[in-house]
Design goal:
Distance between the termini: 29 Å
Number of helices: 1
Largest sheet: 4 strands, antiparallel
Radius of gyration: 22 Å
CATH class: Alpha Beta
Number of domains: 1
Strand order of the largest sheet: 2-7-6-3
Length: about 110
């Protein structure tokens, strides 16, 4: 007889703190740009899109605007945030041979 895994009560709320790739803040992605490089008004909280030599950059958030410098943040908008998910398990199945070999789904 195959024993079915116990499923805790669902739905369940899951908090994710600074452990996933999305939620890690990379301080090297925060940098200053001379204000004179902007030919338009910028303000804190504004999202800018930039492009360099045929490659798209992620959105940049304006963190601060000073008299001479604008501080930009190239991190994902959820970086550094506590992520909260509500999930519902709808089915449980045995792991495949590949999942057992790698220890996770691919």
């Amino acid at each position: 007889m195959t024993r079915q895994p116990a499923i805790p009560s669902w739905p369940r709320t899951v908090l994710r703190r600074e452990r996933s790739a999305v939620s890690i803040t990379d301080r090297t992605q925060v940098f200053d740009v001379p204000r004179e490089r902007f030919d338009f008004e910028v303000f804190p909280g504004q999202i800018l899109h930039a492009q360099l030599a045929n490659s798209q950059l992620p959105p940049l958030q304006v963190l601060a605007v000073g008299e001479q410098l604008v501080t930009l943040d190239g991190n994902h908008p959820l970086a550094g945030k506590t992520l909260c998910f509500e999930v519902t398990i709808v089915a449980v199945r045995p792991a495949s041979a590949e999942e057992l070999r790698f220890g996770f789904t691919r």
